[in-house]
Amino acid sequence: MKTKTPQDDRIAALADPLAEELGLEVVRVRVMSGKRQRLQIMIDRLDGTGVDVDDCARLSRALSDVFEVEDPISGEYDLEISSPGIDRPLTALSHFERWEGYEARIELDRLAEGRKRYKGILAGIEDGHVLLDMDREDETTLIPFDWIAEAKLVLTDALIEADLKARGGNASAQTEGDE
Question: Residue 170: what pLDDT?
């Protein structure tokens, strides 16, 4: 999920140690085609407090130096370093644990019990499985992490409140100020 292709894997292998030295985590790597290729790398701080423009610029400079030597993408491309956003992708087992209690959408790479798409409240992890509490289900659903093709948080009021709190603000003060 962090990567999709062997090229993404190679780029992640180059980016991960540089990001870690800067106190950052590479959340996702994607090379996207178009008129000009775009290399998108989403990052977060290791402490989970979110990234800013300076974090993105520091990693961009470090990666540019390494990419000049290693040349992981043939041809010209644009490098885009960004935050995963509030409704972030969940690409590591630890993300599912960290965001326990929040709503997520999960898509599998195969059918399980006749379906590939799941939506519910993250209930932690257990033995390599993501735990998900779904509406109208009495029991917690266990999803093997290795079966997950895509997963992301759902933008909800609770998630927005948590993001504001992590950034030192609060949603009620924001709402009052907007009236």
Answer: 53
* Cβ neighbours for 2, distance < 8 A, ≥ 6 positions apart: 8, 12, 26, 27, 28, 29, 91, 92
Strand order from edge to edge, sheet including 115-126: 141-144, 129-133, 115-126, 103-112, 148-153
Residues 70 and 114 in one domain: no
Domain extent for 14: 6-82
Non-local CB neighbours of 176 within 8 Å, separated by 6+ positions: none
Tell whether 98 and 72 lie within a shared domain.
no
Residue 175 lies in a domain: no
In tens, the pLDDT along 5-21 reads: 999 999 999 999 999 99
Report the number of distinct structural domains present in the chain: 2
